[in-house]
Amino acid sequence: MDAPPIYRLPQDTLHQIFSGLPLRQIMICRSVCKLFNQVLTSSCFTDLISTRSSLQLLALRPPHHRHVPSHPGLHVFDPDQNQWLRFNLDFLPFGSLHPVASSLGLVYLWGDSTDLSSAPNKSLVVCNPLTRQFRVLPQLGSAWSRHGSVLVDSSSRVMVLTELAALYFSGSSQWFSFSSNLPSKPRSPILVSDSVYALCDVGSPWRSQWKLFSCTVAKMKNSQTWNRLERHEWGDVFDILKRPRLVRGNGNRILMVGGLKSSFSLNSSCSTILILRLDLDSLEWDEAGRMPVDMFRCFQESSKFKVFGGGDRVCFSAKRVGRLALWDYCSGKGEWRWIDGVPGSGDGLCRGFVFEARLTALLP
């Protein structure tokens, strides 16, 4: 039996045909047959469409306490198609994979060494689930995976930050260690351009008082202290939110998310969840959005909630809610909706990050 005519087409011709498809359709075609998968995962084809616009997806981080499946994968939600997807990570020769961050199509994960002859150790791995390429970053101690926050700005700029120290990797063969000198454990640190921003509690054991701190990477290398970022015009912007978190916004903006206190009393209840936006150029705050009352009622009974996302999309999860709340500003106005069918949600408390899926080549 003769092979179908498409098998006789030159490789370059197939590349030109498929290069006209959107990235979402290319991903679907890769699972049609072995020929399509071979053509669409070849280095020549990925180089050809490497500048194609990415898919803006929301990825879930697996809980630390849950049993790691034998077939690891990355669960992501596509807000534009309103559907869940799963990328297999079985090409990674590591155990207990834990995705923590992403940038420019690359995902950063902690993984256990599978070498039975040596002591268990955590490695920070960068990979592209679409091209199934990976690279192991220089070795770190396991304590960094337990206590450090992984911040990524580009494929060659990675930081692992704790209250006392920071590690910085910029594509060389080693990490550079600096003293962070923060007044308390950093909450929800983010890396924007060449600066790190974090919230720190400078209050007392009885009453929290959150402040915004920043430090450029250059200053951190010179062991200089962090600067408290504040203006008289801001007034009580940090006092009106309960348990605030930072989320990286679009461009040179950051988002601060928290429960809107109904009063300034010590154990004040919250009336909703508020999203504030700070323009780092003008240092002016504005309100980006607030959760609708009907949606917030589902979060009121939970003692805490988790926030993740970035750009114009922020997700919220809480115990016993069973689904995610999504704030979407992509259309130029804040829209709120529910995300159902969360895979393996367990107690419902989900963490995650933005995954810009693209066929980015992973440099050695």
UniProtKB/TrEMBL annotation:
<protein>
    <submittedName>
        <fullName>F-box domain containing protein</fullName>
    </submittedName>
</protein>
<feature type="domain" description="F-box">
    <location>
        <begin position="3"/>
        <end position="48"/>
    </location>
</feature>
<dbReference type="InterPro" id="IPR001810">
    <property type="entry name" value="F-box_dom"/>
</dbReference>
<dbReference type="Pfam" id="PF00646">
    <property type="entry name" value="F-box"/>
</dbReference>
<dbReference type="InterPro" id="IPR015915">
    <property type="entry name" value="Kelch-typ_b-propeller"/>
</dbReference>
<dbReference type="InterPro" id="IPR036047">
    <property type="entry name" value="F-box-like_dom_sf"/>
</dbReference>
